[in-house]
Amino acid sequence: MNPLEAVEIARRQMTLFFLVDTSGSMSGSKIGAVNTAIREVLPTISEISEENADAAIKIACMSFATDVNWLFAPTDVEGMTWNDLVAGGTTALGAAMKELNRKLSRSEFMNSPTGNFAPVLFLMSDGQPTDEFQKGLAELQENKWFNVAIRVAIAIGDDADKEVLAQFTGNSELVLTAHTPEALKAMIRFVSVTSSKIGSRSSGVGVGGNAGEESKQAEFAEQVQEFKEENADLDALTDGF
Amino acid sequence: MKKLKPNTQVPLTNGQTAKVKSLLGEGGQGAVYQVAIDGKDYAMKIYTKKPKKNFVDNLEENIRKGSPTPHFLWMKWMVKTPTLIGYVMDLRPKDYVDFSKFLMAKARFSSWSAMTNAALQITYAFRELHRKGLSYQDLNDGNFFFNPKTGDVLICDNDNVAPADTNLGIKGKCRYMAPEVVMGKSNPNNLSDYFSLSVVLFMLFFNNHPFDGKRVSSVPCMNDAIEREVYGINPIFICSPTDDRNRPVRGVHQNVINRWSLFPKFFQDAFVKAFSNDLIHDKNKRMSDNEWVGIISQLRSQTIQHTCGYETFIDLAAPKATCFNCGKEVTMPLTLKIGSHRTILYPQMKIYANQVSSSADMFQEVGEVVVNKNNPNVWGVSNRSKDSWRVTLPNGQKLDVPQGKGFPIYKDVQIEFSAGKIGKIE
Asked: How far apart are CA B235 and CA A15, in angstroms?
C-alpha cells in the first residue's frame, strides 16, 4: 500500500444504547414516534461522529417486550439504516436489565481494540415492568460500565413508571416525560444528539483537578434541565397519546 | 440565543451592515453565518453567550493588529450591539478540507511535498504569530484546513489568540495541551504552544497521536482523569527509543507503523527529542517554531521526485538510498551546502529565496535542478532569482550566472549567492 494513503486514525469507541419498550401498549403512535425520531436523528449523530477524530460513535439497540432482543450489536452510525421496531407483548424490563449487564463487558459489547468512552444508556418505556425489575436492576448496578455511563430515560405517557426509570438513571432529573408524539420525537432527538456530543468528546483541560465521569454526566444533566425549562410547553402542541 | 434569520441586518462597528444569508455552522462558543457586506460574501461569527469584557477587548485588539500571516483566517470587523457580539472574517475557500478528514482517511495529500508544505506553512505561521508577541493557546486538530493538492494551510478559530501570558479563560484540549497547563501550574502561552505544535506536526506526518499506543488503547473505559494522565501529565512517546511501554499496536496504529521508518533519521530524531521526558516536562527546553522550520525545510530539501513517478526521501546519513515506492536503489546524489542546510541536487529539486538571499521567504522558488536537454546525465541548477550568482568551478574558472542561466553540478563547485551566502557542492 502506498504509505501516503493512510488508514483511519485509531478512534476510541462511544456506544449509544437505545433500550426501547416494545410492549403492546407502545403500538401505534408511540412506537411510530420512536421509529421516526431515531431514523431522523441518525444522520445527525453520524455527522457528529464524522467530525470527531477522537471518537467513533456506534449505536446498539435492544427492544424488550415479552422477551429481550438485541436488534444489533454496537454498529458504526456512519451509513446506518434503521429498521422499524414493532410492538407487542408484555414489559420484561427486569430481563432487559440482566441482558444489558451481560453485554456491558469487555468480552462482549465493550470489546473495541481502541478502547471505549463511557457509553450512553437511553431507556424508553410507557408502562410498568411485568417481571422482576428490582432483581435485574440490582445485578446491573454492580456493573462498572453501568456506573460510569451517561444514563437517561423517557417516560412515554402517564402510565409509565417514572420511579422505576429514575432508579435506572439514578437521578429523577434525568427522566423526561413525553405526553405527545411531537414531544417524544423532540426529546429523543435532543437526548441522542446531546449525549452523543458529550459522550464522544475528548476531555478539555478546564481548571485542573476536577476530573472523572461526573463531569460528563453532570454536564449532560445540566443540559437536560435547560431543555426541560426551555420546552415546558412541548406537550401542548398536539394531541396526546 | 436564537439563531439569526436570513435577511437580518447586523450593524458592524465600522459603520457597514452585514446581511445574514444562511447559517454555516454551530460550535460550542457560537454560530457562524454567511453574510453579505456591500455585495461581497463573508463569514460572521456570533457568540451564543455574551463573552467577558477582556475577551471582547482582545478581539478588537486582534482586529486592530491584523493577521500575522495570510494563513490565519483572521477577524476583520467587529459586531458589537446590545444583543450581539461577534466578528466578520473571510469565507473559507471550498477547496480547503479540515484536518480531521485527513486523520480519518477521508482526504489525503497528493504528495509528500504537499504534506511537507503544509507542515512548513503551519510552523512559519506560528513563528510569525509568536514573534508578534502573541500566543495561540488552543492549538488542536480542529483549527487547521488544508488544500489536499498543494498543502496550503488555513488556520481558523483565532478567537483565543492573545498576548503571551494573557489568558482569556481557554485552557485547551487535553490531547494537545502541555502538561504544565493540564496540571493547572500555568496558563497557556508560547511554550505550551510549542508542545501543541509538535503534537500537531506528528499527527500530520504519521496520522497517529504521538501518545496513542498500546498503553492508551488498552484502557477499557477512558475518562477525563485517565486522559489527563496519559496525554498530559505522564505521556509516553510511542516511538521512544528507550521506553517501549506504549508501542503502536498492529492493526490499530497502522499508519505510524507504515510510515515511521520511511523518514530520514534526523527527522525521526526531531520527534524523539520533542517528545523526550525532558522536553515534555521542561517547558523552557521545548523546540521552538523556528527550530521546526529548519527541520521541515531540511526534509523538503531531501524529498526527491524519483524516476518511478513517486516521491521518496533520501537519508543523507544512510549508507545508501532506496526509493521506498519502487524499491530501486538511488545513486546518492550530490548536495548543495549553504550554512548548515543541505539541498539534494536531483532533478526538480528547488532552491528557495531565504536560502540564497536576504529575503525571509522560504516558499518562493528561485532555483531548480534541471536536466541538460542534450545529455540527461548532465544536471545543472537554473537561476530563477533576480540576483546574479557568481560560480567558481573546480578548475578555478569563474562564471557569472544571471537570471535565466544555469551552472553545472559537479563536486566542489562553489557559488556566491547574494547577501554573502556561500554554497558548496559536496
From this structure: 26
Report strand pairing: A150-156 vs A120-125: parallel
For chain B, say whether A4 makes contact (Cβ under 8 Å): yes
Size of interface A-B (CB pairs under 8 A): 123
**A28 contacts chain B (CB < 8 A):** no
- What residue spans define the domains of chain B? 9-89, 97-293, 333-425
3 state SS for A162-212: HHHHHHHHCCHHHEEEECCHHHHHHHHHHHHHHHHHHHCCCCECCCCCCCC
Segment 206-235 of chain A within 8 Å of chain B by CB: 206-209, 211-213, 215-216
pTM: 0.93
* pLDDT confidence bin for B220, thresholds 50/70/90: very high
The CATH number assigned to the domain with range A12-202+212-236 reads 3.40.50.410
Residue A132 grid cell: 422482576
> If DSSP codes are grouped into helix, strand and coil, which group holds residue B127?
helix
β A68-76/B321-322 pair status: unpaired
pLDDT digits (tens, 9 = 90+) for B201-217: 999 999 999 999 999 99
Cβ contacts (< 8 Å) between A74 and chain B: which residues? none
pLDDT at B186: 87
Please provide the DSSP assignment of B262-292 as one string.
Answer: GS-HHHHHHHHHHTSHHHHH-GGGPPPHHHH
How far apart CA A14 and CA A80 sit, in angstroms, is 15
pLDDT digits (tens, 9 = 90+) for A132-160: 999 999 999 999 999 999 999 999 999 99
A203·B227 Cβ contact <8 A: yes
Considering CB atoms only, which of A50, A52, A211 is closest to B224?
A211
Yes or no: say if B22 and B34 are a contact pair by the CB < 8 Å rule: yes
Residues of A in contact with B259 (CB under 8 A): 3
Question: Domain B97-293 belongs to what architecture?
Answer: Orthogonal Bundle (1.10)
Task: Give the model's confidence band at A238: pLDDT under 50 very low, under 70 low, under 90 confident, else very high.
Answer: low
∠ Cα A166 A171 A174 (to 5°) = 80
Is the sign of the CA dihedral B278, B284, B286, B291 positive or negative?
negative
Please state which CATH class domain B333-425 belongs to.
mainly beta
Q: Is B334 in contact with B411 (CB distance < 8 Å)?
A: yes
As a whole number, the mean pLDDT across chain A is 92
Tell me if residue B358 falls in helix, strand or coil. Answer: coil
Q: What is the pLDDT of residue B2?
A: 79
Beta strands in B16-171 (DSSP E): 17-26, 30-37, 40-47, 77-80, 85-89, 97-98, 134-135, 144-146, 153-155, 162-163
CATH number, span B9-89: 3.30.200.20
Tell me the residue type at A88. G
